[in-house]
TrEMBL record, chains A, B:
One Pfam family linked to the record: MerR_1
Alphabetical UniProt keywords: Coiled coil, DNA-binding
Official protein name in the record: MerR family transcriptional regulator
Gene3D superfamilies: 1.10.1660.10
Coiled-coil residue spans: 82-116
Length: 119, 119
DNA sequence: GGTTGACCTACACTAAGTGTAGCATAGTAA
DNA sequence: TTACTATGCTACACTTAGTGTAGGTCAACC
């Protein structure tokens, strides 16, 4: 069993973020020690890692919550979940293209500066 | 002279965003018509376009404000401004790399789903 | 005279947390 | 024993970059 601090360290979330996810319903309310401190099992650590993975791809907390519900609902929701991941992948690809075009804008700005333009 | 609605249309900001930028000090308070409506000159439209350009690269409103102050301070601040744009460029490059690695994570997730894993 | 449409201000709300205040508890050091 | 430090708890305020809403003004059209 891990304290919230240990869990945070292991997973790479802040303590506050973990409490926030619990409040938002992404996590079942954690078991508590006699001192009322949250305790996390290995399986709950895995859930957190899983949340971290989804979160890092830019999926919103609300969407992760939906996704978590689907996972709990069992394999029947698998096709739906695959679709969500595919959509998320497309969103990432779009983001990358957008950022690349913004890079071009900045390059142009720099060129204008180098050419003596002054704003 | 343009109304705020026309300005918003021309630049591609929402009306609310323009008022927000004024409140934040990115824009000088706009001139007003007899009816107290904001009026924008072509030069102010150009400022807005300029803000839009910086904003799209992911620069924060606060940083754009600093940048705007430097522009107003004149050519002496040019080297500093070039540095800011270069840093912003690097941030974009880093963002792109991060997103690419997140793509790999999603790919792996999908592969695991295709291989019959169920969460 | 009534009703759009565009504008105004001020305030509330959003996401995804972070930061702070005020408290309890446990372990360690003098 | 007392003091200090670390870690945890709750609850609330704050952040960013706006968006949305309520309530009001004004000119133009039918």
């Amino acid at each position: 069993m891990y304290t919230i601090g240990q869990a945070a360290q292991k997973v790479g979330f802040s303590i506050g973020a973990i409490r926030f996810y619990e409040r938002k319903g992404l996590l079942e309310p954690a078991a508590r020690s006699e001192q009322n401190n949250r305790l996390y099992t290995d399986s709950e650590i895995n859930w957190l890692v899983f949340i971290k993975c989804l979160r890092e791809t830019g999926m919103s907390v609300e969407d992760i919550k939906q996704f978590a519900n689907m996972v709990m609902a069992g394999t029947a929701t698998l096709p739906e979940r695959i679709k969500i991941i595919q959509d998320q992948k497309q969103k990432l690809l779009d983001d990358i293209e957008e950022k690349k075009s913004q890079l071009v804008h900045l390059e142009r700005k720099l060129q204008r500066y180098y050419n003596g333009e002054n704003y």
